Amino acid sequence: MRYLGVALGQSLALGTCAGLGAILGPVFTGHANDLTGAVIIGVVVTLIGIAIIGVAGAMKSASLPEEEKKKAIKDFNFSKGIIVALLAGFMSACFAIGLSFGEPLAWENTPDIFKSLPATLLVTFGGFITNAVYCLYQNGRNKTWSDYGRGELWSNNLLFCALAGLLWYSQFFGLSLGKGFLTDFPVLITFSWCILMSLNVVFSNVWGIILKEWKGVSRKTIAVLVCGIAVLIISTFLPQIL
């Protein structure tokens, strides 16, 4: 997001995460047979939608003068942003693999809505450890340990960190809730991770438009962006149609 903005940055990272997460989860847990032709087609269509949005981002990068890019995104850097977004998407796909490995953790009589939550707790705890170690490393590198003693920093940081954590976690509760309604549709259960990421991309681009990150681009660029969003929306229910 730092280098590409909310819309394009989230699109590329989550698109990579969607495709790899939907495929690698069943593969690593020995359920590759769940990857039916309909699921594979759905993943491919999702990636096509992401690619279209990426094209819109490239068109935006090529058409806007540098000062306009900086107005919308202060540290805009297309090439660096692409590398970071793809790496983030690849690593984030490991979250889906963790959820797949953690499916047996739920008790037999656990309601469907709650079955993925034990795995989510353990995977997010691993994420907490990773981020905490990196933050402590940065504290040492930048000599900012004294910031922990500044009381005025605690209120806002605690509030917004808690809010961000709550909102971010709610998507996985929504994933578990949605899978509870899809027990009769095994294709969509397998494709559920891709659906979640596709909707994330759609809403991140809506926020990008609201935040005026696409202000000043041509109508053609906007048309390509809208086309990519439409393809992503179609991809969320395409496997069940097939």
Provide the fold topology.
Layout (H helix, E strand, L loop, with lengths): L4 H24 L8 H27 L2 H7 L5 H24 L15 H26 L8 H31 L4 H25 L8 H17 L2 H4 L1
Would you mind describing this structure in some detail?
The chain has one domain. Helices cover 76% and strands 0% of the residues. The chain contains nine helices and no strands. The model has no long low-confidence stretch (mean pLDDT 82).
Low-confidence runs of at least 5 consecutive residues: none
* Distance between the first and last residues' Cα: 35 Å
Mean residue pLDDT: 82
| Helicity range | over 70%
How many domains? 1
The general outline is globular
Number of strands: 0
Radius of gyration: 20 Å
Structural class of the secondary elements? mainly alpha
Please tally the helical runs, counting DSSP H or I stretches of 4 or more residues: 9
Helix and strand sequence:
HHHHHHHHH
Question: What percentage of the residues does DSSP assign to strands (E)?
Answer: under 5%
